[in-house]
Amino acid sequence: MENKRESWGSNLGFIMAAVGSAVGLGNIWGFPYKMGKCGGFTFLIIYILLAVFVGMIIMVSELALGRKSGRGAVGAYQKVSKRFKWVGWLSIIAPFLIMSFYAVLGGYCFQYMSLNLAELGFGLSEIFGQNISGADTFNSMLGNQFGCAMFTFLFMIICMLIVKGGVSAGIEKFNKIGMPALFVMLIVVIIRALTLPNAVEGLKFMFVPGYAVKAGFIPEAPDVVSVLGTAGGQMFFSLSLAMGAMITYGSYLDKKENIVRNSGVIVFSDTLVALMAGLAVIPAAVANGINSGVPVGEIALGGPKLLFVTLQDVFSNMGASGPLFGVIFYLLVIIAAISSAISLMEAVGVYFMDKAETKGKTGMRTKVTLWVSAAILAEAIVVSIDGLGSNGVWIPFQNLLGKSNWNGTWLDFMDCWSEGIAMPLAAMLMSLMIGWELKPDYMLEEVHFGAASRVFDVFYKICIRFVVPVAMAFVLAGQLNEFFNNGSQTVHYVLAFVILAVFWIIAATGNKKTEK
Ligand code: PFF
């Protein structure tokens, strides 16, 4: 085998894979609910501003860093920086921890798809004489630890087979079929959802500022600073940033490809799908709640309950066509989850493959993928038998930093360390490293291989040096507020800005590493 790094088959293939990574569970259950809760269009505007001034900048930086170094996160940071060479580790721990629950949730989707398929084929509810309601299904599923572990296993096997196939023949191929299929299925579900009676209430929840409070969906509107934190955290997770995935995907990208344009396409597509997912799920959930007499404040519109309780109720109350839409819907969520999960797995596995490559060994993909999958499966089994806290598996550090918001669930615990801490920290440190240690021109040089634009260069320099670091301090504080409630939020702001100041000084006083 020749000693050459794997690469994408085409630029379109790369875009599909990157959009596949970005479009995931975060779009379907995070974005629409947060948008409604945080004032509809107000949230959307803040989200778009953050996506343009911060998300886009980090996306370009990650793709460029990956392509320049030809390495995954750990190797990339080690190659370019003296003072931040350890940051890559944050971007390998985060995807590893995220996978612990992503795989479990993917497994849940398989169970729900099977359930709807069985209803479609054999009329399960006829046999048992009752509707397959969301709450009953959810509770019995969580109680069945063995079943959940087996479906987690199934999800992991599928992801493993794709990643094992390689960058072009595995990951790219899956996304090239999966992404268009997902898009079509989403449109089918949107049409059905918007034609349900009372669907307009859900649209109002999503788009009309203040409606969520007025109608009683939430008790009070969040303040502007916390909206900023929520939108920032959501944007990062949704765009798959600061978790090594985009650095890794960038490392397989051809020098002639236009990184800025590609980043724009990825950011735009991810936001579009998040809005479309909102149109598919929120109006249906709200309409069904109202039509079945559930008080609006009790309709679960966010988190696992949205997917596995509220929406299952939508399908089981829909009449004869319900199970069919159930199958289509859960299948599309499975595709979204797999396409994201494989990027997380690749972001972890690339570390070992890079290491072997530097020693002149190639052809390690199969072995590495097997080991990474086994390690992820081990941690995912813990999350799966915990059953979102309903089975009470013991969790360490419950009282760290005052009272944690983990609510006794392993899912939140893993999410806290990855999405809550590692992710905003890694993005903050990356911007300081590029902006102040390496200097923006170092990265722009790589960007210019594909295309050069003076306007973008100026925009990039200002954002990476000033806008992104400060925004990241707010996002970090926002995430700490969300995960730790030790009485005062001021502590979190102080902590985040002290971290920013310390690393800013470290970056600004460092000398650029002389390369190679
Ligand atoms: N972007 C994915 C989502 O919205 O669900 C999650 C994700 C995938 C985060 C890959 C990070 C990552 F590297």
Overview of this structure, please?
By secondary structure, the protein is mainly α. 75% of the residues lie in helices and 0% in strands. The protein contains 21 helices and no strands. The chain has helices spanning 11-22, 25-37, 41-69, 73-80, 87-122, 124-128, 134-143, 145-164, 167-194, 199-207, 211-214, 224-238, 245-250, 259-291, 303-316, 322-358, 365-386, 410-438, 440-447, 454-483, 490-508. Helix 1 crosses helix 9 and helix 14 crosses helix 15. The longest helix has 37 residues, at 322-358. The mean pLDDT is 91.
Quickly describe the structure:
The chain is mainly α and 516 residues long. The protein has helices at residues 11-22, 25-37, 41-69, 73-80, 87-122, 124-128, 134-143, 145-164, 167-194, 199-207, 211-214, 224-238, 245-250, 259-291, 303-316, 322-358, 365-386, 410-438, 440-447, 454-483, 490-508. Helices cover 75% and strands 0% of the residues.
Describe the secondary-structure layout:
Layout: H1 11-22, H2 25-37, H3 41-69, H4 73-80, H5 87-122, H6 124-128, H7 134-143, H8 145-164, H9 167-194, H10 199-207, H11 211-214, H12 224-238, H13 245-250, H14 259-291, H15 303-316, H16 322-358, H17 365-386, H18 410-438, H19 440-447, H20 454-483, H21 490-508
Helix pairs in contact: 1-9, 1-14, 1-16, 2-10, 2-12, 2-14, 3-4, 3-12, 3-14, 3-19, 3-20, 4-5, 5-8, 5-16, 5-17, 5-18, 7-15, 8-9, 8-16, 8-17, 9-14, 9-16, 10-14, 12-20, 14-15, 15-16, 16-17, 18-19, 18-20, 18-21, 20-21
Bound molecules: 4-fluoro-L-phenylalanine (PFF).
